[in-house]
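Appendix B. One record, verbatim.
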Amino acid sequence: MLQFPFQHGQLGDATHAFVVFDVGDPALDLPMRAIPGEQWHDVMTYCDRQWISSYTYEGIRQRLLAEDALLAGAGPAAGPAVVPEPPRVAVGSAGPGGSGGRPDDRYPTRRATVVTPPRANSDAEAGPGPDGPAEAYVSVVGTVNLTQRNGGIRYVNPVEPHAAPPSDPASAGPAPDGAEGPTAVLRIVQSGGAPPEEVTVPVRLSSEPDPGTDRTGLIDAVAPAGTAPEAIELVLDGQVVDTFRPAGPPPALRSARHSGTEDGALGMALEFDASPEPGQTYSAQVSSDGGRTWHTVGVGLKDPTVQLDRHLLRHSTDVRLRITTTNGFSSTTAETSVAG
């Protein structure tokens, strides 16, 4: 996301392109109403009269889409998702209550069952295509400090090619005011002496920085990693400021067992076929319809535990947990049923 679009943290301006839409709550005698965006402020402003803005809503939505894309290779390939237009209203209820469901609708105690055989998700492990080895794609998230000329690569995950943006990934594009924005370079080093892949990516500057503070920003890009990636270098002004190197082959999930409940969450303790190494992480997805659809509940996790929202699963009789472990360049996926 770029700079916050409205002054003083407001939800809108005099054009009324965005307004607050309160659906009300008949049980609390709160009427449905529309409120001018100039009178309310985004939830991150710490001002009075708060509501979620179109800016924050879209940022959360894009992040959820990005997390789903990280795990796009974990299941059968699907067609490209239809991304709706950003909403023109912020919807919710300003009342103190909500419709969270019946408090006595308890979730049954569950136990883990047998894990399905793991499968590798690396394109390289899948074998060469008709024109040679398949090219891998990776999602790279990092932070940079343009004032201090340093930065770090925080997360690297393999993704399917269809997760890449349709535009040329090597083009950073102009900033909203027409001026060229800051950029960085991701240099993907190839094994065997092959020339590296270099991708120029935009730096998304932090919004509304305090006067006199360093210029910091975020890198969040999907980039082609070549056919034999060995490392990723983060380059600022021609200088390498950080290097990511993958850990060993990611271990697969061996079992998952119920470890108790706390604060409405069902705890699952995970056991892998080898002890995870530093640099290996896992992502977790849960399905309440037998694997037809999946919800991402964690990305970049390191502790061998995962918490599942019991309210999300309370009406299901076929709950499944999918764990994808990765070293950044390759991944392994296994599923288990969470049965009553």
